[in-house]
Amino acid sequence: SRDARRVKTFFRRAGYYAVRALIAIVRPLPLPLALFLGRSLGSLSRVVLRRRYNVALSNLEYAYGDALSERARVRIARECFRQFGMFAIESIKTPFMTDDAIRSILTVSPEDVRLYEEQFARGKGCLIVTGHIGSFELSGRWLCTRGYKVHSIMRETRDPALTALLRELRQRNGIQASFTDTS
Q1: Which of 63, 138, 62, 126 is nearest to 94 (CA)?
Q2: What tens digit of pLDDT does each residue of 58-69 get?
């Protein structure tokens, strides 16, 4: 119905402006304080997004059955929300950090650095596939600080303004973003 579309539009707009406000808040913060904020927001989102939290608990029960106690599933689900909050803040913070700051917070083993260098030296590029695990945005930025061109493929969000904002953040990181066709 038209009213339902208006409500969705309202919440999408509100979400967009909330992200913009969060960028304004996080940008000047020192990284440790920003990450504390992220953990706190993640914990809050667990309470606010109760249905998502219950899905996480259900998925853990499905995946592990009796191998994990209910207490362990609760601990893991809570930590997942805290980690997601930190990831969200890192995704907002890193585009505004210097290359030196990025290199100082991310440790890459010498073996992995050598592997990248050998692969890129061939002049044909390299395909790196990652899931939404850890701070994948940070690893792309790290590659850019070393002079490599990074191109990511992402799915458009339901809100075109938010999609444009995410593209802008990736471009600030030096990452070229393309979008998949989800139709």
Answers
A1: 138
A2: 999 999 999 999
